[in-house]
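Input (structure):
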């Protein structure tokens, strides 16, 4: 599949002089899930708003399905579904009418069967005659997603979709996202939940202070930037590291019962063999050995630290 979104030099500076986006370049492939990670105020929502035509850029271009988001706004916007952070639905309207009306806004013909399909996929069919203000916060968020899907977009933006929802609903949403991707929908997700990106995304983009610092496949990012740790449990505690371990980057913890050794698993020589031999030379008896791969959260925090966040 080819690119569905092409962003070149996208920037946004507000009237007060604050620059929310700094010349962002990004290509998003059709059918992928891209997660955008970044701290509050990093520019995630501004970037989504600019792509969706809700915020006017001060520089650069955005094409969605080949259509310029400024000069061909209507055609570009028809391809996009947006689930915003804030729950903005008419409180006294019914769920069914809310979703059906949204389809009409995009010039789509009435299709009751399609609306039923969308509502059922989000466990909203039984609530179709309920008013929005009668729903829980999690169910109202499902209505937002149904609205965004009602006109069958090729691209779906989820801006903090699981903020404030319970674990069960979060898992349900993850399953829905996978189903949408399987049907060919491209999904761009912003989230504060690292595990959400790690669970679902094909690629991860890290944004900070308006700059898109890095975009990589998730596995590649963890492989290149992640470290592994060797955890060693000692049969008997020690009060200090023996001289034989001086050449190694080993730390002592847990009251002298535990040793930690960080290494790059992609390196030609990890040093593990020499470390084990040094432990034997020092007369230390091991009771357990395990390894831990750096998580996406470790990588994310490290990058932000390097960027001066």
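Output (sequence):
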């Amino acid at each position: 599949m080819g690119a569905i979104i092409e962003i070149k030099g996208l920037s946004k500076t507000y009237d007060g002089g604050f620059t929310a986006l700094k010349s962002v370049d990004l290509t998003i492939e059709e059918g992928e899930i891209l997660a955008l990670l970044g701290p509050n105020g990093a520019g995630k929502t501004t970037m989504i708003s600019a792509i969706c035509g809700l915020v006017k850029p001060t520089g650069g271009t955005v094409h969605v399905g080949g259509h310029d988001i400024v000069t061909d706004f209507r055609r570009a916007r028809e391809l996009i579904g947006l689930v915003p952070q804030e729950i903005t639905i008419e409180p006294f309207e019914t769920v069914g009418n809310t979703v059906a009306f949204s389809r009409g806004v995009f010039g789509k013909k009435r299709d009751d069967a399609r609306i039923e399909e969308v509502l059922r996929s989000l466990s909203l069919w039984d609530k179709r005659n309920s008013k929005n203000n009668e729903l829980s916060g999690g169910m109202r968020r499902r209505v937002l997603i149904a609205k965004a899907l009602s006109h069958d977009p090729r691209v779906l933006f989820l801006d903090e979709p699981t903020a404030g929802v319970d674990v069960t609903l979060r898992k349900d949403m993850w399953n829905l996202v996978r189903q949408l991707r399987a049907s060919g929908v491209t999904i761009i997700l912003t989230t504060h939940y690292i595990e959400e990106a790690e669970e679902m995304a094909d690629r991860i983009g890290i944004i900070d202070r308006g700059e898109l610092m890095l975009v990589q496949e998730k596995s590649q990012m963890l492989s290149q930037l992640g470290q592994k740790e060797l955890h060693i449990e000692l049969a008997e505690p020690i009060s200090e590291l023996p001289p034989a371990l001086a050449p190694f980057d080993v730390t002592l913890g847990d009251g002298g019962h535990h040793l930690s050794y960080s290494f790059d698993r992609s390196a030609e020589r990890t040093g593990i063999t020499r470390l084990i031999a040094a432990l034997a030379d020092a007369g230390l008896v091991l009771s357990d050995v395990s390894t831990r791969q750096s998580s996406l959260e470790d990588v994310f925090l490290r990058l932000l630290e390097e960027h001066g966040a």
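Notes: The chain has a mean pLDDT of 87. The domain at 227-293 is CATH 3.30.70 (Alpha-Beta Plaits).
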